[in-house]
Amino acid sequence: MPSFRLHPHPSTSSSSDHHTHLHRQHTSTDADIAVGAGTSTLEIAEEELDHDRQSESVSVRTRWKDIMSDNSAVINTFIAGGLAGAASRTVVSPLERLKIILQVQASSASHVSSGQAYGGVWESLTRMWKNEGWRGFMKGNGINVVRILPYSALQFTSYGAFKSVLATWSGEEVLSTPLRLTAGAGAGIVAVAATYPLDLVRARLSVATSGMAIKSTSGGFTAEDAKLGMVGMTKKVYRTEGGIRGLYRGCWATAVGVAPYVSLNFYIYESLKSMILPSSLSPTTSEPELILRKLSCGALAGATSLIFTHPFDVLRRKLQVAGLASMSPQHNGAVDVVKWIVRTEGFWKGMYRGLVPNLIKVTPSIAVSFYTFETVRDLLAALGEE
């Protein structure tokens, strides 16, 4: 049987190569399409991600604006309260320092005869200026401003918050006198509790640099202590007087004294404002007269409140320097301090020590405080509406 050899047909081979070429072309094209599709999908995903990020950013900004808008009154009150406190205390810084010195200095004849004790207001201010100059007037004001910023801000803000809570609780649109006094007392306690260590350190610095308390070697101030700043004095009190307990020495007595003072301050101010700045006041009233009326409301409120609460302020200062043997004997609490003051100096002379410089200080201080608060608050509200 003859054998047969099969030879591929030329056309068949060519067709096969063409098919392979086409297959490769298709494969290449499919790959390009796949890569293109993948790239397109990635770009779309990136665009969507950017869009989501932008949307999220816009959403966050919107939520933040809503929060700021909803709480604008509280925020404005907080800022205005802080600036009001800083302005008011800076204005009367020399009198503030003198008040503390007069409240805590010893009253024995030896101190007076030696010329160590401070005397009258103007005489003492003159002495302070001659000895220390402008720095003497402003001594302790830095820490006072640091303390008063949050103190005043919390006081004004807390007062508004307490009024709101009490109005909701009582159902009264216009709070009664007891509830308004309660709101003021609560505001005073909150502010004191939050800032008391700074107040104690400020009192120590004022006394340490006054030239009266640098001879003690038994736990009082020394010449080196007079050079301490805010941080140094805080460390000294914390290290030598029981840590946090030392920094809060006399806090409860301060709260007891501040609560009625702040309470009366707000109550009397609001009452006087309704009389001195009534809604029926003529719109043609000049700006200087309006300013004078506003300042008068604050001045009268501060002076009246102080007369009732000054003994608590004296007690607070005595407790704050109770650990200084050069300034006063050791005491076992507020009651012991009061007994000692009344026994050695009498109630009126002892418990109202430093009242005159305190009145001179408080009158312009509270006037500036309320005026600054309302001015800044109204300005911030106006800016927020634009």
Automatic annotation (TrEMBL):
GO cellular component: mitochondrial membrane
Database matches in PROSITE patterns: SOLCAR
Membrane association type: Multi-pass membrane protein
SUPFAM superfamilies tied to this protein: Mitochondrial carrier
Name of the featured protein: Solute carrier family 25 (Mitochondrial phosphate transporter), member 23/24/25/41
Stretches the record annotates as Disordered: 1-34
Pfam families: Mito_carr
Keyword Transport found: yes
Signal peptide limits: none
Keywords, ordered alphabetically: Membrane, Mitochondrion, Repeat, Transmembrane, Transmembrane helix, Transport
Organism: Kwoniella europaea PYCC6329
Compartments in which it is found: Mitochondrion membrane
